[in-house]
UniProtKB/TrEMBL annotation:
Keyword check for Iron: yes
Pfam families in alphabetical order: Fer4_7
Entry superkingdom: Bacteria
Gene name of the encoded protein: napF
Keywords from the UniProt entry: Iron, Iron-sulfur, Metal-binding
GO molecular function ontology, one term from the record: iron-sulfur cluster binding
Every 4Fe-4S ferredoxin-type domain range: 1-31, 36-65
Protein name: Ferredoxin-type protein napF
Amino acid sequence: MIGERCLARNGTDCQACRDACPTEAIRFRPRVGGPFLPELEQEACTGCGACLAVCPVAAIGVREVRGESVYV
């Protein structure tokens, strides 16, 4: 999860989480009049936590997302 404290969401350019993500699960979408906004691709996120340590405002959290059960 990327919370409301995120610098990019508050008008300051920052992409530290994207740079730290080994699976490129965090991408930044361009917008007019401000810094690019973060988007999380949940399918690509492994929950490794690499993005947590680099966020200067602790705007990122990791939580378990339960997927569908697969029966074979």
